[in-house]
Design goal:
Layout: H1 2-26, E1 40-45, H2 47-58, E2 66-70, H3 82-86, H4 98-111, E3 124-128, H5 138-148, E4 157-160, E5 169-171, E6 176-177, E7 186-188, H6 193-202, E8 216-221, E9 234-239, E10 249-254, H7 261-264, H8 267-270, H9 274-281, E11 283-287, H10 315-327, E12 343-345, E13 351-355, E14 364-369, E15 372-373, E16 383-387, E17 394-402, E18 408-411, E19 415-418, E20 427-432, H11 433-438, E21 442-445, E22 448-451, E23 457-460, E24 466-473, E25 476-479
Parallel strand pairs: 1-2, 1-10, 2-3, 3-4, 5-7, 6-7, 10-11
Antiparallel strand pairs: 8-9, 9-11, 12-13, 13-16, 14-15, 14-17, 17-18, 17-19, 20-24, 21-22, 22-23, 24-25
Length: about 475
Amino acid sequence: MQAMRRNWKGLAAAAAMTVAAHAAMAAVPLPALNANPAEVSVSGLSAGGFMAVQLHVAYSATFKRGAGIVAGGPYYCAEGSVLNATGRCMTHSTSIPVSTLVSTTNSWAASGTIDPVSNLAGSKVYLFSGTADNTVKQAVMDDLKTYYQSFVPAANTVYKNNLGAGHAMVTDDYGGACSTTATPYINNCGFDLAGAILTHLYGPLNPRNNGTLGGTFTEFNQSEFITGHGAAATGWIYVPQACTTASCRVHLVLHGCKQNYTDVGDQYVKKTGYNRWADTNNIVLIYPQTSTAATNSCWDWWGYDNANYAKKSGPQMAAMKAMVDRVTSSGGGSSLPAPTGVGTSGATASSMVIGWAGVSGATGYNVYRGGSKVNAAPVAGTNYTDTGLAASTTYSWTVAALDAGNAQGAMSTAATGTTTSGGTGGTCYTASNYTHTMAGRAYALYGLTYAYGSGQSMGLWNIYVTTTLKQTGPGYYVVGTC
């Protein structure tokens, strides 16, 4: 009977992987629309709000128009600690060290791990916090306003904090009662928050389309930009009809925890109010999606997936930057087909070999990891060794051919590979889940415990549940034995 249970678990896992792979194959590539790179912005709720701040600050040269933050907090608020995330950054149980976070921002900008902070001065910020939000307290949003004062002119910031809304995205015609905090975390408060955000970021807009939308919703292949790392195989994009021929604006919309497509269907994508404004104002909307493998379907704003989660090199961050780059590109200008036979081999703890079949007429190739180009010069052959990778980590690569004019052709399908642990056996630690979190090998969230790095569930967070964790790389632990 036990063996049968294991077999069923294996079959279920295999089936889930097959469904995800099929979804990515069935979805279309994210289109290159030649959108205006000077008109890019981002907004998000809760975990999406924290991620929106991260993107706005780290990629300030990309998100030039600014950010709309609903129930978020200061940049790098958690400082890599889930205890900080669930404490000071949500309940404000202890004070948030805003001045320290400002200093960190300036230091990282000076080192080049994030864009220069001078870019932020020309952007706009819209902040929203409901008076009935007991999940992310208004004091946290107050600190976010204080944080932004170091970088964004006061005249460019709006802070609405006088509406009795719970922890939710607010609309004027859809969702639950205004003061509630419950799935799908969309509340009807008689206030058009999406419209307020977009109007502040872009200036006066044409009236919204309250009728049938003229554009198209498309499920796109998100795994072209990122695989694993808590990201779903597919995301969604709304393209107004005019944007198929005209150069349009781009707005990235980030859902909160327990709000991805698997959790709430298309409610966040279609019912939060963004699309009807986008339709009449030439705004392309990108809706990236987490997977249910992500902790509570949240975006990574405290380090559950990667230690560099708030920097430009963070996997989720780099993937969304690459999505914007794709939409603002013109498609490359070459008719060369996509390389085939892309695969990975020769894994080490810090490198991977990517190989592919040659394309007739190609003079070179570009290699992309998670949507970001990794080769400094065109690759002459049909393989490339990507270095500087993290141990025991899964990555995704795509390849495109270059013609004699160095114009890029179609992008290949993605190939994934996992780096090795960097050791022969690893080190094992057997302790209570409480002890693991105190030692920095795991983190607790909503009463459950997860291994750092792998994010594997360890059960309840207490002194009674004992788990063996195997360290397979720096800051990377898996449930198992040596």
